[in-house]
Automatic annotation (TrEMBL):
<dbReference type="GO" id="GO:0004316">
    <property type="term" value="F:3-oxoacyl-[acyl-carrier-protein] reductase (NADPH) activity"/>
</dbReference>
<keyword id="KW-0521">NADP</keyword>
<comment type="similarity">
    <text>Belongs to the short-chain dehydrogenases/reductases (SDR) family.</text>
</comment>
<dbReference type="InterPro" id="IPR057326">
    <property type="entry name" value="KR_dom"/>
</dbReference>
<dbReference type="InterPro" id="IPR050259">
    <property type="entry name" value="SDR"/>
</dbReference>
<dbReference type="Pfam" id="PF00106">
    <property type="entry name" value="adh_short"/>
</dbReference>
<dbReference type="InterPro" id="IPR002347">
    <property type="entry name" value="SDR_fam"/>
</dbReference>
<protein>
    <recommendedName>
        <fullName>3-oxoacyl-[acyl-carrier-protein] reductase</fullName>
        <ecNumber>1.1.1.100</ecNumber>
    </recommendedName>
</protein>
<feature type="domain" description="Ketoreductase">
    <location>
        <begin position="24"/>
        <end position="196"/>
    </location>
</feature>
<dbReference type="InterPro" id="IPR036291">
    <property type="entry name" value="NAD(P)-bd_dom_sf"/>
</dbReference>
Amino acid sequence: MSYSKRTDQVSGHLNYPKGMLAGQVAIITGSGQGIGAETARLFANEGAKVVVSDVDGKKADEVASNINSSGGSAISVAGDMLDANYIDTLVKKAAEFGNGKIHIIVNNAGFTWDGVIHKMTDKQWDTIIALHGTAPFKLARAAAPYFRVKDGEPRNIINISSTSGVNGNAGQVNYALAKAGVTGLTKAIAKEWGPQFGVRANTIAFGHILTRLTGAKEAGAFVTTPDGTKVALGIPQAQKDARGDGGVHPDIPLRRAGTATEAASAILAVASPLFSYVDGQTIMVTGGRNM
């Protein structure tokens, strides 16, 4: 594997002829669609060997197939992040794919299961806390032997959060707590694995990004929990219309929602050598909202 870089003597800029992530093995959870799928594509374009992880096996296979047909390198390892056995399998197959090495984890998998505090069920609470809080911890713990190494190669863990975790959000007390906890998890990893092993860990907190979680609930997007419960995703169209903003988003300085590609580009930036001295931070990607 080559992690070499060269300096353009004319411009002084660093160039990465084989890509900024050349030779690095990256696990991206929830990468069968949306932000995760775009992240997988961008990582592969920068030379990473991508492990596509998603509960939807068909979608995961499609993402991996598209990457491979475009000249990149990817495998699909489908499964449920709430299944501890799956997490062990994911790490094992990623390490095999990487000839014994894993360099990047992007903890992106998740969904929302909203409800006001006085009506939220234990099942809603426990599922979201487990998916957004416990699962990223278990994945990092399972992958520890591949991160607590001294081989001179970069290691990155990027945990995806939300403005709900930074500022709170009505109707999302479970999600808000879980995403706030992601910040603490990230900082603990940075402080434990940074000094001896050079592992960088950062959080990215997204604002309004155009995904199935922010689309109209009437579009019919849903996820199915392990016990077969269907959880509807999105925001009711009536609630969206009640804002009366015509989709301009006056609370966002850029006056628009972000795209999945823009969100994925932020993840790539944090994983790249361009952010080599950024560690333990929560990076807000919101179009300026809540600043």
